[in-house]
Write a structure and sequence with these properties.
By secondary structure, the protein is α/β, with parallel strands linked by helices. The chain has twelve helices and 18 strands. Helix 4 packs parallel to helix 5 and helix 9 packs parallel to helix 11. It is globular. It starts with 8 loop residues before the first helix and ends with a helix.
Length: about 475
């Protein structure tokens, strides 16, 4: 029987040393030949996340900013909408004193019910003011007359002011710029912080004396606003230039009203007075700082005050209680590199009407550039997309009404039909009640355009009504 020989420990140790040496020699040869040694995989460095800050609240004012989508398609056009939502749900804790200049058109075309209703509305306004408020009354035709120099509305002065308003009689042309400048001059002596400074201008016709250029009138309103006085315009009847009065209000940081029936003037005066008495934030400004590579196409419905590099500044009317104001900016983001991309920082600054202190609310937004079409669809913000369509409808309404006013009814109707189709198709996916109402109203306007010739009263009312709708849709 054979016997198994026990292993020699010294021999085993020698063989181990020789095997280790051989392995080291092989590794050295592989390295010399450029074959890399196998290494443990290293996890890729994660792309840094960009945190959105949607906004916040300061005092009575809230601001929120959102994009139309969280993702955009790589190598696509990169179009996104930035929706900026301002709210002031709280009632004003204290009512600011008012410094008002009421500028009334008394041209010949105001004769009869229009001037009579304007005077009634003005008197109703006077009766709501107190000794804390100042009022000037200016009337204009071919000339300008200071009916009441700026004065506190005390109990003793009230009846005198009312009697002066009742003494206004129609005559002359439409020296609109003269009336506006005189209103500004009356207010200017008493402008100060901590009060509301406003010119309210009424017109029923087109400026035909003094400054008549639409752009010059816009500049005049902008100059007045830059000195702390806002300009609100009211167009009465069917003969005024709604484009001029709308732009004057926009550049004057005020409001525009279409008063089809002069009997509605008292309620519109009351609405404007309620707004002034409920102001919670004054001299608001939006600073939109664009991230590198992002460009601004436009801010829909609002004039851009200035651009400095990648910063866009938009001035707004004072913020009043129970208000919701929406702005929409059209942006283009770069789509060449996938991953997160900052879009914009939005900063709202305003003076708190209760404390007089300057307050700031800021927010940031970002998108992710991706090749995943599903992610783009899932990241869509339906509310903002719907808002963007409302703004597009406003633009197309203005286009349609310009064609209609020029006598090209077919072109106007073609724009309306196309807009109805586009809005209906989009809302089949979004299912937004607001867009459903827009479609219903567009169809009504289309039917109206089929039965009203542009030069008739019904046609002119259609034009002004739709341009007023466009003004409201932007906001």
């Amino acid at each position: 029987m054979s016997q198994r020989r026990a292993a020699n420990p010294q021999s085993v140790k020698t063989k181990g040393i020789m095997l280790t040496a051989s392995l080291l020699t092989v590794i050295a040869l592989l390295l010399a030949l450029g074959v890399p040694a196998r290494q443990k995989p290293v996890a890729p460095t994660p792309t840094p996340r960009i945190a959105d800050q949607p906004g916040g609240k300061s005092g009575a004012v809230m601001m929120q900013s959102r994009l139309s989508g969280s993702h955009v398609l790589a190598d696509g056009p990169g179009n996104v909408y930035l929706d900026i939502d301002l709210r002031a749900d709280e009632a004003a804790k204290r009512r600011l004193p008012l410094n008002i200049a009421l500028v009334i058109d008394r041209s010949g075309s105001m004769a009869g019910a229009k001037l009579r209703d304007a005077k009634k509305a003005a008197i109703a306004l006077v009766e709501r003011l107190t000794e804390r408020d100042r009022l000037a009354v200016i009337d204009y035709g071919s000339d300008v007359f200071v009916r009441v120099a700026s004065t506190p509305v005390t109990s003793a002065a009230r009846q005198s002011i009312i009697a002066s308003i009742q003494g206004i009689h129609d005559r002359g042309g439409t020296y609109l710029s003269g009336g506006l400048e005189r209103g500004r001059a009356e207010i200017a002596h008493y402008v100060k912080r901590g009060q509301v400074n406003r010119v309210i201008l009424i017109s029923d016709g087109q400026a035909n004396e003094g400054v008549t250029s639409p752009r010059a009138l816009q500049r005049l309103s902008r100059t007045i606003a830059s000195n702390g006085v806002s300009v609100t315009t009211m167009g009465v009847g069917l003969d005024f230039d709604e484009d001029v009065l709308t732009k004057m209000a926009e550049h004057g940081n005020g409001h525009y009203y279409f008063v089809k029936e002069s009997s509605d003037m008292a309620s519109i005066f009351s609405k404007e007075l309620d707004i002034m008495m409920g102001i919670v934030g004054q001299r608001p400004q939006l600073h939109i700082t664009l991230a590198p590579g992002v460009s601004l196409t436009r801010v829909l419905g609002y004039p851009v005050e200035r651009r400095a590099g990648n910063v866009v500044v938009v001035s707004l009317p004072d913020i009043h209680s129970k208000q919701r104001r929406k702005l929409l900016a059209e942006l283009v983001v770069p789509t060449g590199v996938t991953g997160p991309h900052a879009v914009a920082r939005v900063e709202l600054s305003f003076e708190d009407a209760n404390t007089g202190k300057r307050r700031v609310i800021a927010s940031t937004t970002s998108v992710t550039v991706t090749k995943d079409r599903g992610a783009v669809a899932r990241g869509e913000n339906r509310e903002v997309v719907g808002r963007a369509q409302e703004a597009r409808v406003a633009t197309r309404l203005e286009t349609a009404m310009r064609s209609f006013a020029g006598g090209d009814v077919a072109a106007a109707q073609a724009v309306l039909k196309k807009t109805i189709r586009a809005t209906s198709t989009l809302n089949a996916r979004l299912r937004r009640p607001a867009l459903r109402r827009v479609v219903r109203d567009l169809k009504a306007q289309l039917r109206a355009s089929e039965s009203a010739a542009p030069a008739t009263p019904a046609g002119r009312a259609l034009i002004k009504r739709n341009k007023a709708k466009a003004y409201d849709l932007y906001r």
